[in-house]
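Model: Ready when you are.
Researcher: Fold this.
Model:
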Amino acid sequence: MDKLKVLASDDIVKTAVEAIEAMGCQVDEASYGPEELPDKLKEYDALIVRSATKVKRSTFEAMGKESKLKLIVRAGVGLDNIDLEAAKEFGVEVRNTPNSSSQAVAELVLGHMLSLARHLQKSNFTMRNGEWNKKKYVGVELADSTLGIIGIGRIGRSLAEKAQALGMKIIYNDIMGEVKDFTTYTFVDKETLLKKADFISLHVPKFADEPPVLGKSEFDMMKDGVYVINCARGGTLDEDALLEGLNSGKVAGAALDVFETEPTPNKDLLSHENVSSSPHIGASTNEAQERIGGELIEIFEAFCKGGSY
């Protein structure tokens, strides 16, 4: 019997590759551009991606229904780089690793929040230029500030726990409504959250046909001097509206790990002195990558045996 062929298009932890190979699969680690990918994928039974590889409807259509591909695994949480409707039409199962990166992303959000609150991103830069701006960088404390979390899934919950430990007051809004076991956090409607929160953190997916969760009207509702953090998905906030808020002073600071155009984000945002940025590194910790590897192994244990995956 021929080995099942797996294409790991984006980097995954080596232990996962070795474990999948030990199950009898052939794992090829190679990256292909959008023009090459459909022809290459015809040769594989499964595909593993992270954020870089996009599997669009055009990819499935170019492969055709004669393709061997039966499984795509997103080594991470979000699935917005895969056309799920097209995958279903072409008989391809799509899985992700939802339990792997919650802690890592929540900690990154906190890191950005602290950087903004205490001007760490600015003072680090100016000190390297020989400036001693002790009186200029007067910050705010997270303790007793109100954090508004939009989207209270695994990452939002992890952030709530950590922020509350720092003394923050937690309010949240979620499309599914109030979470009954969240007795220490307060559910509010979206408008109330926007008006009351000192810090707002997004933890929602991005759907192609839907407008940003935070657009100009939402920024207009926010209190003056608000801090906005997006470590979820590019496009969940309107970057032009954010830039307008930063320039007017409505938004005191913004932290962005994800962008509308990656890997070439809006330069005006990146160069803004009140923006703390990072290159989509939410899940980039050793621990998170090991957990992702563990979830991949579980999925492929079933796949290689021909079972449910």
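Researcher: Now this one.
Model:
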Amino acid sequence: MRITVLIIACILLRISLQAQQEAHFTQFMFNKLSFNPAYAGSSEYASISALHRSQWVGLEGAPTSQVVNFQTPMKNKRVGLGMTVMHDQIGPSTSWSYQLKYSYGFPIANGRLAIGLQGSLRNYRVKWDKTKAIQQGDAVLSSDPTNRMLPNFGMGIYFQNRKFFVGASLPNILKGDLSFYEGEEYNTDFSQEKQHFYFMGGLILPIGNATMFKPAFLVKYTENAPASVDLNASLIFVEKFWVGATYRMGGDQFTKLGESLDAIVQYQLSQNIRAGVAYDFTLSKMRAYNSGTFEVVLDYYFMKQNQILTNPRFF
């Protein structure tokens, strides 16, 4: 396929030679529902969150991602329900994912151990008129946009108490064909939706009357790709102001520095609202072609002013 932009897309992100397809999120500790259905119902009250990520700012056709999560515990506190809508765009390709989530929890070790299931539907769309062919009249290119709908399901497990959390998930169990082409002359193995495994954890350590230390990690693994590891360390002041840093291992095969070094700041604006921003400093050779990556996130909890959280929203 002789088109510059798709070659770049394959090297850089979702449909990649290293098979890492799902978007990275620097503030992963506040976006757990999007990749682990067992997190649904882990909060005392219903909540909704919105996140925007612009990756590799300044690079033409660079990825952008938006996520909206909603989750709520049911009255018996055992069952949790959730919903995620996710949008990704890179160059001429766009992906919309719609996910419904269910979790069932058991009280254990002063916390909640939950098992979660999700069903999802993902729509991939490529606008071929946005591509630039090296060879004019390439028969491989379509003149019209193409779409592909991929149903899937996933599962996860998640434990949380006042001191720590840990979880593992496989959001998409089925593999899907993303080639958009039929026939023996095309290699449909090149573009496939791969399984992604996630494992994460974190804990809270008081280090003073008004300060807490919160380390956290996220491990992502995909077949035929090196594991991606995010290591985060945050300080929380007076249960309102967060400041932290994340080191993302990975990057390209030509550097040992890793993928990025990230800064995170969050603030509890009110009892109901929390806002956060993050900035990624690229460490790989991609740093020569972009101005970094930024994220913004906003959380809202549906609770009345006279209600009090017995479990602080650190997780």
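Researcher: Key takeaway?
Model: The chain has one helix and 17 strands.
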